[in-house]
Amino acid sequence: MADIRTTIAGLQMVNPVMTASGTFGYGLEFADLVDLSQIGGIIMKGTTLHPREGNDYPRMAETASGMLNCVGLQNKGVDYFCEHIYPQVKDIQTNMIVNVSGSSPDDYAECAARINELDKIPAIELNISCPNVKQGGMAFGVTTEGASQVVKAVREAYDKTLIVKLSPNVTSIADIARSVEDAGADAVSLINTLMGMAIDIEKRKPRLSINTGGLSGPAVKPVAVRCVWQVAKAVKIPVIGLGGIMTPEDAIEFFMAGASAIEIGTGNFIDPAISVKVAQGISDWLDRHHYESIHDIVGII
Amino acid sequence: MKQCKDLKIVAVERPNDGYVLLKLTDNEPLPAILAGQFVEIKVENSPQTFLRRPISVNFVDKARNELWLLIQVVGEGTRHLANLQVGDTLNVLFPLGNGFSQGVVGERVLLVGGGVGIAPLLEYAKQLKQVGATPYLLLGGRSANNLLQLELFRQYGEVYVTTEDGSMGEKGFVTNHSILANDQLFQRISCCGPKPMMVAVARWAKEHQVRCEVSLENLMACGLGACLCCVEKTVKGNVCVCKEGPVFDINELTWQI
Questions:
Q1: Residue A241 has pLDDT above 70, yes or no
Q2: Which of A126, A186, A285, B240 is the most core-located residue (most Cβ within 10 A)?
Q3: Reduced to 3 DSSP states, what percent helix, strand and coil does chain A have, rounded to the nearest 5?
């Protein structure tokens, strides 16, 4: 059987499949439905220094092979996470990673510093790519200066594995990736959602409360594969690929494009056990094609 | 405990063009399901239907180990569901959500349903009767075509009907029904239907100081409280209808009533 264990920037994983932030809660919501220890890592819901109510309803619109969302980083803040959620998730036997967001470099750094104190959280994923908040979020991820500034601030406050999640809503994602690598990121994950819009023509109104939202699901996969391929060629740090992965074959595309691990997001809504099924399917595909290890196909394109 | 599995379709009934009743079973005993809980169905072979479809539990037949789903055909996804055949399987994530308040012995509860919102009230009427409460059913629809399963409802309690076109029962909306003239008759109300109807019922309940809960159907994706898409504004802030609901006491909501 092919070896699909992997290590990304110091994180040891049973397999290279993680669940994407905002699509898998804190893992607990799925505990009845999937063996969490068989997932390579769980990236928990976006967390900010202060509590956020998120955007108004409606926050979701189904689209062709995908969906738009404008949740807007609803969460109870990092203190609530540390006091109430961390005790419930710390013994889950996988990499429990916090996705961190903020509205200023100081916000990000302070939030990261609090999470740095939590023994059982081996990494954070820095969200500089949320398209659904007015301040911060994607604003930092669309310029090399902004991205670099936030990553530098967090790097000073955080000494464990630092993953930076990139936005596809940019002219050159490779330039952004290079700037966060230079600023001290240990890995990059991409892509966050693509900014989109849908209109209810009968009501003559946008279908989302804040008009625009982030597109995810199979509809975005070709864009994501292209971004991963460009970034993998541009940086030396590991690349984590995501965007519309629903099957093991989708995942293999990302590995060939240069991803060392993948995340599954929207697919969790269709099949709560999709991550474990995709991991198994990756192993089966490697066996069928006589590869001994997942590393044998990473970046072969 | 939540499950995600293929259930087998043992009966497909089409009471009229607008609806389909699917009866599902499993080789293992179905888990305990509270009235008012719902399922999320995966719609296969329908490229336009990406997300699962949330459907309320219409009835659980414990003796036959059957779960019933009464589905109104409104779009591409539900049209596919209406074309399923006996012997097909359906991938179901369930049971989800909180469910209606459990009844107590001797309690008189008015169940108000509108359109396909009457579906979960059948199981609820059964469960209320089982615990020794007395359910009364007030069911409304545009016309007689929208009022299904009345003979089943009558097994569990008195049934009152309104239709907007007067084709059955009293003409008008549920809140116009003469049964409501006596506001001492009911100790509480549970309601499921279109939002304008639920707002009207909530307003009536508040005015007459009767406890009232409503079942919401906000657009949702995951059904598990993970994606935070289906939120409703409550006195505690935005909460997930799929997890904290779908049933809410009207005092928890921020509706203008």
A1: yes
A2: A126
A3: 35, 25, 40
